[in-house]
């Protein structure tokens, strides 16, 4: 009878009377091993069975903390500590790492490995869909999402933050200036000069023209009031 196939990933299913079952079984094993969900970023002992405290990590891809696609070329040997449980992960930049606990910074969780004095005893798979997890990895992507802690927006190369917001302290700062609370309310100036406002403050001359002086004051009042209104409109000043 002809070989049949599974519905989802088309694994070979040899018939009862078929010969050389090793061929479809080995082909199935190679196919499964090549699937990203199975073989990608898998942690295994360097030798089978383990003869050392070294593990290997297969190549694979993952979603980094900023939403971009990260790729890992694989690690042929990563040495672990003896007589304990070692956590194995990739940094958000894709560097193979290990330690007694997973980090608090963004990382890609891979496995927990139990070791003896000279060899690996067990590998417990801990992969979670290859997405970087940890602090500062929450995306604000849709209406209703919120950020509960401080937020800074900086250039990719680092440096002073362009915007720094602390919702707990209710402060905001721009261009590296320390955050400050909302400015207190200022009342607009009342222009009683009777002058005409313009975009210029002119020389009143030796005659000290009353009209020119009033126009200058009117122009200054108009600009001050415009700044107050703008600050209130954007919430930088209390209304």
What form results from the Cα inertia axes?
elongated
- What is the CATH C-level name of the largest domain? Mainly Beta
How would you state the average pLDDT, rounded?
88
Read across the widest sheet, the strand sequence of neighbours is 9-8-10-11
Task: Give the helix tally.
Answer: 3
Write the CATH homologous superfamily of the largest domain: Tail fiber receptor-binding protein
Number of strands: 14
Distance between the termini: 83 Å
| Strand composition percent | 25-35%
Q: CATH topology of the largest domain, which one?
A: Tail fiber receptor-binding protein
Unreliable sequence segments: none
Percentage of residues assigned to helices:
10-25%
The total domain count is 3
Q: Measured on Cα atoms, how large is the radius of gyration?
A: 33 Å
Note the main sheet: 4 strands, antiparallel
Assign the CATH architecture of the largest domain. Answer: Trefoil
Based on secondary structure, the structural category is alpha+beta
Question: What is the subunit organization of this protein?
Answer: single chain
Helices and strands, in N-to-C order? EEHHEEEEEEEEEEEEH
Describe this protein's structure:
This protein has three domains: 1-34, no CATH class; 41-137, Tail fiber receptor-binding protein; 151-233, no CATH class. With 239 residues, the chain is an alpha+beta fold. A four-stranded antiparallel sheet has the order 9-8-10-11, with no helix packed on it. A three-stranded antiparallel sheet has the order 3-4-7, with no helix packed on it. A three-stranded antiparallel sheet has the order 12-13-14, with no helix packed on it. Helix content is 17%, strand content 26%. It is elongated, with a radius of gyration of 33 Å. The protein has helices at residues 22-34, 36-39, 210-233, and strands at residues 4-5, 12-13, 43-45, 54-57, 60-63, 69-72, 75-79, 84-91, 96-99, 107-115, 120-125, 151-153, 163-166, 171-174. It has three helices and 14 strands.
